[in-house]
Design goal:
The chain has 233 residues and is mainly beta. The protein is 12% helix and 41% strand. It contains 3 helices and 14 strands. It is elongated.
Length: 233
């Protein structure tokens, strides 16, 4: 089996990992840097140990998991060509869980996914007002966390999700209680769309050929026969 390059799979884990990866590609200006810029590090929650803080940095926290009733549908079986937050194809899913699945002769279905909104808090921390403004400009841009039409690519299932900015604000603070050690902080509230399968999938056998026979009534004399193969996928 090939080496799995996705760090985290599964509901919430895959979305958190994808959000962290997206926010890990941010740089601010730095005249002392080798190429005139400095990378903005991204952490899960606020790093407690002071030696782990490299300013500027971004922190991510999951603050709510909300059932998205506006995107919900009645229970019904739907084709399952992938598995949300886990695998891009059902063949990969069946291989990972050791299912006896034949892609050429079977097709998978599952109960319609339950939709959820994952609420994250993104906070930027900077020692200078310049870096604070640069990070704010980048995060509000269309490539990261805009108010409308934002996106998040999730490598686990190779899907693209909605990533919308709900609100943002300023929350500066003094580090260590020292009024001279000011930290510039912005807090962004974003929502990522997600789905959670309510039940295990069902694999149905495909109809590969239809055979028809015409017989006399009464009697069993065969008057004709026809065969029709299923179209090639």
């Amino acid at each position: 089996m090939a080496t799995d390059t996705v760090i985290d799979r599964g509901f919430i884990l895959a979305e958190e990992e994808a959000l962290k990866a997206k926010l890990s590609n941010i740089y601010v200006s730095d005249p002392k840097g080798a190429d005139g810029r400095r990378r903005v590090h991204t952490y899960w929650s606020y790093p407690i140990a002071e030696r782990n803080r490299q300013y500027p940095f971004i922190t991510i926290d999951l603050i709510d998991v909300e059932f998205a009733a506006d995107r919900a549908h009645s229970a019904q079986l739907i084709p399952s060509d992938y598995w949300p937050s886990e695998f891009a194809t059902f063949a990969e899913y069946s291989d990972a869980y050791g299912l006896n699945y034949d892609d050429a002769r079977q097709f998978p279905e599952a109960i319609n996914w339950h939709p959820y909104n994952l609420h994250f808090q993104i906070a930027s921390h900077a020692r200078t007002g310049r870096h604070d403004l640069e990070i704010t400009r980048i995060l509000l841009g269309t490539s990261f966390t805009p108010h409308r039409w934002g996106w998040l690519h999730v490598p686990a299932d190779e899907s693209d999700r909605w990533l919308d900015l709900v609100d943002w604000g300023t929350a500066n603070y003094n580090e260590g209680g020292d009024s001279t050690n000011r930290i510039f902080r912005k807090i962004f509230h974003v929502v990522v769309s997600a789905h959670l399968p309510p039940d295990n999938p069902i694999a149905f056998w495909k109809v590969l050929k239809l055979v028809g026979v015409v017989k006399t009534i009464p009697g069993e004399e065969e008057m004709g026969r026809w065969e029709h193969n299923a179209p090639t996928p």
